[in-house]
Amino acid sequence: MKKALASLALYASWCGNYDILAYAENNDVELTETTQALDSAPASTEENLSDTPNALDVLGIPGLSPSSKTPKAPAKSKPDYKKLVEPIVHASPCSKHDYRDRGVAPTSYSIGLAATFAHSYCRLKKNPNWAMGKKNGPPRRDGLTHYEVTTSGEWQDALVKTYTLITGMGMRESSGDIHAGRDLSANNTSDETAETGAFQFSKDSMPAHPDLKDLYTEYRTYPDLCSPEDWQFEGKPKIAKVNPNAKFTDFTRQCPRFSAEYAATAARTVREHFGTLNRKEAEMPESCHHMYSEIAQAVEKAGCE
């Protein structure tokens, strides 16, 4: 039984199925056991899981397979999400919210995050299997569950609540500064462990969920998606060029759209990575929930590329 559950958890960790993850956890199956299940499977298992419809037969679970999220080339002309969201952001009380000990968010942070939400909305409209739009998962992984915020089960509702959460998280972590470097008082200084950017995450969070690696691969493959112009920070130097070969800590700051989507995914899959979420210090203003809901309606009306 434990071996079968370990296999189920392995499948769930790849495709983001929180029902299976929760069931496995309730039966005391840790992800270390899923690693053992993978190690004992045929050498081709990992490749088969992403490429073959019945790949999980090798783990004794026929007929199940995770969805593929192979990076695809972006449209020839990028949608102008910034133009779409700007009037909504300026009119919303969310952009004027006074965060505890942090003040009002920089306009560029509010607009950049709103434009990234529009991008994520279109991403999930094409493929709703991304973790940032999933229903509630286990509280030790899912920031929304930890905050006792329930999703309706629809990806649109989950995405709005996820972005409301990371809006407050970014303000608490860095006051909304996409250029923020690592904490100079911390000892985690390597590219694997140093936390940088507006949301202060590190590369060693990536193994927690396959979506995190998929996002990193996608943005490095297509750096034009980074859209740093949407996030031009007041009084800060303009990001002239995104280097897809830059080390993780630098790429995170050069590519703010990646940073936001990564944070949205990590907040739902590895919330223990963020002390701000663990201590419930990130605010979730109702006004921001309303703003993202309005942006979702505007994107739906305008259409995706």
* Helix and strand sequence: HHHHHEEHHHHHHHH
Rg is 19 Å
User: What's the number of domains?
Assistant: 2
Helical percentage: 40-55%
Strand percentage lies at: under 5%
Mean pLDDT: 79
Largest sheet: 2 strands, antiparallel
Quantity of strands, as a count: 2
- Taking pLDDT < 50 over at least 5 consecutive residues as the criterion, the unreliable ranges are 1-67
Shape descriptor: globular
Strand order in space, largest sheet: 1-2
The rounded distance between the terminal residues' Cα atoms is: 46 Å
Structural class: mainly alpha
Count of alpha and pi helical runs: 13
How would you describe the overall organization of this protein?
The protein is mostly helical and 305 residues long. Helices cover 49% and strands 1% of the residues. It has 13 helices and two strands, in the order αααααββαααααααα. A hairpin with a 3-residue loop joins β1 and β2. The protein starts with a helix and ends with a helix. 46% of the residues are buried. Mean pLDDT is 79; it is low at 1-67.
SSE layout and pairings?
Elements: H1 2-15, H2 18-26, H3 31-40, H4 45-51, H5 81-91, E1 98-99, E2 103-104, H6 107-126, H7 143-146, H8 155-174, H9 210-221, H10 248-254, H11 256-269, H12 275-278, H13 286-302
Antiparallel strand pairs: 1-2
Helix pairs in contact: 1-2, 1-3, 5-6, 5-13, 6-8, 6-11, 6-13, 8-11, 8-13, 9-11
